[in-house]
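Kindly go through one protein, given below as sequence and tokens. The question is how this chain folds according to its tokens.

***
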Amino acid sequence: MTALAAAPLPPLGAPQWAIDMENRITQRMEWGFRVHDIHLHNSEVAQREQSEWNLSRFLNASCTHDGEPLAPLPLPLPRIAVPAIPPPPVPGTAANHPPPWAPPAIVVPAADPAFPANKGALRAMSGPALDTLLQSYRLPGVNVGTVADRRTRFAHHIGVTL
């Protein structure tokens, strides 16, 4: 028997530096995929929202008289917040895997209850009522400009020509 054959075998498995590198790479990839999935979901939400809004805007563009009913725009759809990717694991510790996630169903909400029923109601809206609608639909310029300016801004958003 030679001295080489009598030497103890090294333990099976990878060295710690390789395990640490694998953990860093795995964590970065898994979190990167999660962020990508959330961005993809949010883009599907935005497409659905625009589709619903464009249909209502198309219908509202044909309203010519004050008494004609307006097609209400659904409220904006909620988006999923994109998490920050955690720092890489400390050497010797396990990777920080993202929690399980399934995209929520995209459900179109109803319109704001204060949405004007027709063009005449839109023309008669006061400043505070317009500000509530501007805020509900996440439009800029709440409490900015005259009531006529805010009314025109909201009318443009819903597809109505005043």
Q: What stands out?
A: The two ends are 100 Å apart (CA to CA). Residues 16-61 form the longest helix (46 residues).
